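Quick one: structure tokens for this chain, please?
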Amino acid sequence: MDLINTSTARSTQYGCDEPLLNRVLTPYKPHCRYLKAATVTRQGEPRDGGRVSARGEFTIPESCYIDDTGHFNAVEFNLCFNQLVYYLLAKSVKERAMWPFDAWTLDEYWARQLPDILIVDFRSTFRRAMRGRGFWGEIDVVGVDEREADGGSIVLVSTLCRYGDGDVPTCHGGVRLAVRTTRTEAA
């Protein structure tokens, strides 16, 4: 465990776990691995009003899909969110930091990372243009709820996120994930 700071009994910060980060980014093409470092902070349990958060440092040397637009855009917002939330969830599994992921093993997480973590609602708002070459991003898990679904149960994870290249975020959004917690034969 790479614990770097415990300020109160309810707040724990985990430093960047480079081997874990490298494993999280394995599914991405090398030129699309924008997340360079990340920390995770736990302040209570999200299903009980607490918060688990991640802060990442990103670099996008060039767009992976289009000529240079000159600014950070919605596609890059989504890719950066995916990379940071995958890290946040993997770290939550490893450190037993958040229900229900505290009951998973890392092997279970790796098997589920791509097929069982689905974006079901995505919003992004841009206040001003941001270059995107070097910037920070943050995700807060603000709610976790379990529901029954066809073929098993799912966990709905509600997040708020923001990105910036200075002290103030230049864009923000909200993303809701559905995470299948019951493996089906078809999955």
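The two ends are 31 Å apart (CA to CA).
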